[in-house]
Amino acid sequence: MRRFLLRWIVSAASAYVAMRLVAGFRIEGGWTVYFWLALFFGLANALIAPLLKFLTCPLILLTLGLFTLVINGVMLLVATRVAQFFGLPVFVDTFGAAILAALIISVVSFLLSALLGLDREDRRRDRR
Predict the structure, then answer these.
(1) 2 inside domain
(2) Closest CA to 19 of 37, 6, 7
(3) CA 10, CA 16: separation in Å to the nearest integer?
(4) Which residue of 3, 43, 53, 127 shows the fewest CB atoms closer than 10 Å?
(5) Quick check: 98 and 71 in contact, CB under 8 A?
(6) Rounded to an integer, what distance in angstroms lies between the CA atom of residue 67 and that of residue 24?
(7) Structural domain for 48, as ranges
(8) What is the number of structural domains in the chain?
(9) 58: number of CA atoms within 13 Å, CB side?
(10) Which of 116, 111, 108, 114 is nearest to 22 (CA)?
(11) Using one digit for the tens of pLDDT, what is the confidence trace for 56-106?
């Protein structure tokens, strides 16, 4: 449970960083909006992204993996639409902004997870 909460906090912080860096990605409201967006983005990545990656596998191979950036952008758009459905003030102006914001969220999440040692815990558990 502790690991889940830490990952959730990392995702919310990453969304905040992306919002500050990408002009077309806006989140209005307090930290609860960031946490809800992080939850929706994580669910989209867990439930929809594997199917999209499977269906677009030839395209991913053809672009040497760069098409996964497009898939991440689509997942962010899905997460923002779900958030808007629930009345949360999350906005993405363009598809390019979604791709850039998703890229920043991924990079910041990776860096924060490495700093907090979240990936080390996963590797230790896998060795057992």
Answers:
(1) no
(2) 37
(3) 10
(4) 127
(5) no
(6) 21
(7) 25-121
(8) 1
(9) 0
(10) 108
(11) 999 999 999 999 999 999 999 999 999 999 999 999 999 999 999 999 999
The residue written with tokens 């949360």 in the block is 88
Does some domain include residue 86?
A: yes
Residue 32 lies in a domain: yes
Residue spans of alpha helices (H) in 1-117: 2-21, 31-47, 49-55, 57-62, 67-85, 95-116
Q: What's the pLDDT score for residue 122? A: 61
Q: Indicate whether 103 belongs to any domain.
A: yes
Cα 51 to chain centroid distance, Å, stands at 16
Angle at 114 between CA 112 and CA 120, to 5 degrees: 140
Distance CA 76, CA 14 (A): 13
> Minimal CA–CA distance to 38: which of 66, 75, 3?
75
